[in-house]
Design brief:
- α2 packs antiparallel against α3 (57-86).
- 13% of the residues are buried.
- The strands form 2 sheets. Strands 1-8-7-4-5 form a 5-stranded antiparallel beta sheet, with no helix packed on it. A 3-stranded antiparallel beta sheet has the order 2-3-6.
- It is built from 6 helices and 8 strands.
- It is elongated.
- A hairpin with a 6-residue loop joins β2 (92-98) and β3 (105-112).
- By secondary structure, it is α+β, with helices and mostly antiparallel strands.
């Protein structure tokens, strides 16, 4: 099983089929195809002498060149459109993180790593298929598996973070000390998280993620330098 799978789908806004030139491209290729098919049919099975088709050779070549030019022009426009979308579309991801002021605390994050704002963000998280003995020992700080009211907007570069649980409650036991503390026996099984949201133009997106807490194993839970400075300043303030 892959450690972290992502599925990302986009549904175009209404009218995009006509607005991006696909209809015009289809009509152009259809007309050129019909003309070439008629010429080929008449050349091989028609009553006209084949020698008379010599005068139509420039026309046939022009049609072929026009078809090729149309194809490459459409391909170039499609690449430009993809580049434009990449610079304006929102891209939301679901991932785990650590609180800066308490690294032992694991957060459940929804982050917009795209270039546009995400609207009407709906988060749906499946509850892990945990053991009956381990489930009450998780001590979730925020039960993210319940339906959440949609977020009106998540701006580009911004993140929504939920306090999830302490790291050792998610990862389970791996030492005799933790066994004495009555921690869960096993890590939280991988679970699915789904997002649905819109962009400013009305395009709709759906994403699905596999969350695996085992990726947190081995990460440091020591205080950050900023928090050490805060602790030192607090001690100095108490002594003064």
């Amino acid at each position: 099983m892959k450690k972290y799978t992502i599925r990302h789908d986009k549904n175009e806004a209404k009218g995009a089929f006509r607005g991006d030139g696909r209809l015009a491209l289809g009509v152009t290729f259809g007309v050129l195809g019909v003309v070439l098919a008629v010429i080929v049919f008449e050349f091989f099975w028609g009553d006209i002498d084949r020698s008379e088709y010599v005068q139509f050779a420039p026309l046939i070549i022009s049609l072929l060149v026009a078809a090729g030019s149309t194809y490459f022009a459409a391909y170039a426009l499609l690449e430009q459109r993809r580049a434009r979308e990449a610079s304006t579309d929102p891209v939301l991801i679901v991932h785990l993180g650590q609180r800066a002021d308490a690294r032992e605390l694991i957060t459940f994050n929804v982050t917009n790593v795209g270039a546009g704002a995400a609207l009407n963000v709906l988060l749906d998280v499946d509850e892990p298929d945990d053991d009956d003995d381990d489930r009450p020992k998780r001590n979730y700080l925020r039960h993210i598996f319940k339906p959440h009211h949609p977020f009106t907007v998540i701006l580009q570069g911004n993140s929504v973070a939920f306090d999830f649980a302490l790291g050792w409650h998610l990862l389970g036991q791996n030492s005799s000390e933790q066994i004495d503390r009555g921690l869960p026996l096993h890590p939280v099984p991988p679970f699915q998280a789904r997002l649905s949201y819109e962009d400013l133009a009305g395009g709709k997106y759906e994403s699905e993620f596999t969350i695996d807490v085992r990726e947190l194993r081995g990460l440091s839970a020591s205080k950050s330098p900023q928090m050490r400075m805060v602790t030192a300043l607090e001690k100095i303030a108490k002594k003064s």
